[in-house]
Amino acid sequence: MSAGWEGHGAWVETVRVAETHTGYPLRRLMEAGPLEALRSQRQAPCAVLAHSVGVFRTWRKAGMPLPAAVAGHSMGSYSALVAAGVVSIEAALDLFSAVEDTSEAAFADRPMGMAYVIGLSELDVRQALLAHPSLALSNRNGQAQFTVSGPVDELEPLVAALQPAAFKAGLLPVHHPLHGPHMAALLPAISRRMAATKPATPAFPLISHFDGRLLLTGPEAWDEGLASVALPVDWLAVVARLRVLDAPLAECGHGSQLAGLTRWAERAMQVSSLQLPP
Question: Residue 100, exposed/middle/buried by CB under 10 A (0-12, 13-18, 19+)?
């Protein structure tokens, strides 16, 4: 994950700040693993945030102009908030901790999680959910790519029922029902934990991953960041906004997940990558 970035000061400093704040050995994990630790519920969001923001800052230092707008999917929305200067990376890391702490306490008695379904229509998924009222459609990632959140003991039979007709279906490696109504009750406690954070005006617009609208002020961008753990993700709405903006697209972070999701939503859209250092 860190290959090629160790010699770039902006990336190194960003990761150093994240390591100092969290106490996690993020740079070592990104370089050498073990993969299980890097993918852990506590450390994975911090690594993704630090790496993505470090990549953005490195490219900016190399002369990349400010973007016309930025969108982030789920955890990526926090990378966007930090890159735009709405909040510090420390504040975003504190929000991750607040979500983890409150979720672990709230769902200790009934394991929660998320499942993915690829290759079925939204109508097919919603019809299957009628038999599982404790579950919720949490992400619309494409025309035929969705996630569902809720109790694991209901996710498992849902996946089993959908697998024969789906291209792929299974459980995601997360332990919280993110982007669904189960998280809504936790928002007051999370907001109290983050009450001292004062958002600044973003250096560029952010695109809501809830409905695709442009977030132009610090308070509205941060408010959505706080609420987004309970708000569903609609990447189709994000892609609709990107289509209107009609600007070149580049993915800032490790891998090509957003490029893939964007192509699922709109086959004609091309997304380049900033993963290789400038």
Answer: middle
